[in-house]
Amino acid sequence: MSGRTLLDRTLDAVSGAAPVVVVGPWRPTDHEVVWTRETPSGGGPLAGLDAGLRAVPDSVEYVAVLATDHPDVTEATVDRLTEALRARPAAHGCVLGDPEGVPQWLVGVWRAPALRRAMPADAQGRSLRSLLKPLDPLSVPAVGSEACDIDTPEDLRRGGDGEKKSGEEP
User: Which UniProt keywords apply (predicted)?
Assistant: First the structure.
């Protein structure tokens, strides 16, 4: 992983964005970010998305939603997702599709107003997929090992070589 944290690798992928919001406990990073937490802590990915979205100004049109466990997502990945979404004005968002076509719900670019409208009043413990799938996002095929993810120490040791494929959120 070249001595960089998964957080910093993910933040590199959105280096030109502002603001950049990180949901979770404070950690050292070389990037300027806005920190926030889901309520309650550990409320799940949808609660994290809700907390992050609340920290983004209403004037922001597009938001990248990225988990830190996809070490091979780069700025080029986010650019491809953003361009795909811009090319389809009626689309609410787009997500990375793994080599089998499985949507990677935590690697996507979305229209912020669409996410805000779809967000339930109580996001705690609810499935992220239950919010995002009905928005019918475009699927952008992964290039190389972009869709690989890190779930175990073995995955981390192996690095982003594409051997471990990410699956759908339960």
Answer: Transferase
Residue 23 is given by DSSP the state: E
Distance CA 35, CA 10 (A): 15
- Per the listing, tokens 């979770």 go with 24
Alpha helices, DSSP H, located in 13-163: 45-54, 75-86, 112-118, 128-132, 153-158
Residue 162 near residue 77 (C-beta atoms within 8 A): no
Q: How far, in Å, CA of 131 to CA of 27, rounded?
A: 28
Whether the pTM exceeds 0.85: the reply is yes
Compute the distance between CA of residue 4 and CA of residue 1 in angstroms, rounded to an integer.
6
pLDDT tens column, 60-106: 999 999 999 999 999 999 999 999 999 999 999 999 999 999 999 99
Domains and CATH numbers, the chain: 6-155 (3.90.550.10)
| DSSP category for residue 133 | G
Angle made by CA atoms 37, 61, 93, in degrees to the nearest 5: 85
